[in-house]
Write a structure and sequence with these properties.
Helices cover 12% and strands 45% of the residues. The chain has 138 residues and is mainly beta. The strands form 4 sheets. Strands 5-2-1-6 form a 4-stranded antiparallel sheet. Strands 3-4 form a two-stranded antiparallel sheet. Strand 9, helix 2 and strand 10 form a beta-alpha-beta unit. The longest helix is centred in the C-terminal third of the chain and has 9 residues. The two termini are 18 Å apart.
């Protein structure tokens, strides 16, 4: 699970504005490589949204299925805003939605609506139909 912990209005270099939400993954214990002591941490990331700021404010504290994962990326420069220290990083944190199988009702509805791109070996689980989850983002 991830929790929505904040939102931010962002302005791009070309002057466009958009809103992003900050997601935090599950807390976990890590062990310091220098002291050996344990500390509690959680991965965080931001995702852009088409929702207005007022809606984002109301979402703070809400949870969603999925995880925030550390992934390898091309090295990029990073400056610590608190210390001014420069680093080169080769990782980023990304949100990964939880994959879930469609219920029989959802699959039947999607096929009825002529969404025939579903493979015949698609796994089906029981449950009630929620049309908002018929097409999951990839």
């Amino acid at each position: 699970m991830v929790t929505i912990i904040n939102y931010k209005e962002v302005q791009t270099e070309d002057g466009r504005h958009f809103v992003s939400i900050e997601l935090q993954g599950e807390p976990r214990l890590e062990q310091s490589s220098t002291t050996g002591n344990f500390y509690l941490t959680a991965n965080k990331t931001r995702v852009s949204t088409a929702l207005p700021i007022e809606a984002c404010k109301m979402l703070i504290g809400q949870t969603m299925s999925g995880t925030v994962e550390k992934v390898q990326v091309e090295p990029y420069p990073y400056v610590n805003k608190e210390t001014g220290e420069s680093f080169t990083l080769d990782y980023a944190y990304v949100y990964r939605p939880e994959e879930r199988a469609m219920s029989k009702e959802e699959l039947d509805y999607a096929r009825m609506m002529n969404f025939n791109q579903f493979p015949s070996n698609h796994s089906v689980i029981g449950g009630s139909m929620d049309i908002s989850k018929v097409m999951m983002p990839s």
